[in-house]
TrEMBL record:
It comes from the Bacteria. InterPro entries: Peripla_BP_I, SBP_2_dom. Belongs to the bacterial solute-binding protein 2 family. Its main location: other. GO terms for cellular component: cell envelope. It is found in: Cell envelope. This is Monosaccharide ABC transporter substrate-binding protein (CUT2 family). The keyword Signal applies.
């Protein structure tokens, strides 16, 4: 009986500890919908490690305005920052897709002794020394939107570019029954997000008989994407499918097929309203990866949490289900213009202000 009581007591203690763990996990700051703690080694920062009295100055560095997604990401970030009176100033820097400029921008933020730095990296490798320098100076560094080589940063919130690429690749493998020739529309050469999305595509195609007939960079831009698709239509027509690294390029490609009077082959895109409008109007067989522009706002939330003395895990990831014909109506906004990206945390007033149809 004594042994049974002891075992029962231990079970009570174990259950209490488990519940405490659940409660602690539940109390963790919510950085954005769908963000989960990445599996594997994923330590927490120490409580009060970065706590500082406000007002705070926060550095915010982006790789560049390659397309309207980045513009919306900045709008989302500004809207979130405005909710926190503890933030005295956001020091914004646009790297214009140049690693050297982003390094110089972050060096300047370190020299200004900002309280936190939020980075959307332009390069997978080039920023490692400057991020280590910022952390060594006691500045928490939050990375978002694209992966980076080093893990010296404080925390990251990632839409997982590898997963993005796989979503489209798997769609084409399934739709084409594992065989055929495809066009591949990549983003900007040298940008980490492009490299990782492409690796995700190659991972999805491995073991299939799908061949990449042509591979071109469209810079995630509607105009460049249209030029690329027009050129491909003349030099390498009749693809069995199209994998695209971005929604603006996908929209441009659908319009090129329409102009040439040809049916659109199975195509992948992104949660861009313009792409979804073209998808709907053309009746194409398509899917869209979801890459929320709210990641910038999540960076602000992470900075506020750390500077308030809260603990965060090092790695948070987003692996949202893609947009398909079945859930299309949940994402497409016919009342907004083509520059809107779904989903968004912006208020109804801000959405109308920035993306109201004209």
């Amino acid at each position: 009986m004594k042994q049974r009581k002891t075992s029962f007591s231990r079970a009570i203690v174990a259950a209490a500890l488990a519940l405490a763990g659940v409660a602690a996990h539940a109390a963790e700051p919510v950085l954005m919908p769908g963000a989960i703690v990445r599996e594997g080694n994923n330590p927490l920062s120490a409580p009060n490690q970065f706590k500082k009295a406000p007002p705070w100055r926060i550095g915010f560095s982006i790789w560049g305005f390659g397309n309207t997604w980045m513009t919306q990401m900045v709008h989302e970030t500004d809207a979130e920052a405005a909710k926190h009176k503890e933030i005295g100033k956001i020091i914004f820097a646009d790297a214009n897709s140049k690693p050297a400029k982003q390094i110089a921008d972050i060096e300047d933020m370190i020299a200004q002794k900002v309280d936190a730095i939020i980075v959307a990296p332009v390069s997978y490798t080039a920023l490692t020394p400057v991020i280590k320098k910022a952390v060594a100076a006691g500045i928490p560094v939050i990375v978002h939107s694209t992966e980076i080589e080093t893990d010296a940063y404080t925390t990251e919130i990632q839409g997982e570019a590898l997963y993005f690429g796989e979503v489209g690749g798997k769609f084409l493998v399934d739709t084409l029954h594992g065989k055929g020739n495809i066009w591949v529309l990549r983003g900007q050469a040298g940008i980490a997000a492009d490299t990782m999305r492409y690796e995700g595509l190659r991972k999805a195609l491995a073991g299939s008989n799908i061949k990449i007939a042509s591979e071109q960079y469209g810079d995630w831009s509607y105009n460049k994407g249209k030029q690329v698709c027009e050129s491909l239509m003349l030099s390498n027509p009749n693809p069995d499918g199209i994998w695209s690294s971005g929604g603006d390029m996908s929209r441009a490609c659908i319009e090129v097929f329409k102009e040439f009077g040809k049916p659109v082959p199975p195509i992948t895109g992104e949660g861009n309203n313009g792409f979804m409008r073209a998808w709907k109007d053309s009746g194409a067989n398509a899917t869209a990866a979801v890459f929320p522009s709210e990641q910038g706002a999540a960076g602000i939330r992470a900075a506020v949490a750390l500077l308030s003395g809260e603990s965060l895990h090092k790695h948070y990831v987003l692996r949202p289900a893609p947009i398909t014909k079945a859930n299309f109506a949940q994402f497409y906004r016919p009342d907004l213009n083509d520059n809107y990206w779904a989903p968004s945390a912006l208020s109804a007033a801000d959405l109308k202000k920035y993306y109201g149809s004209k």
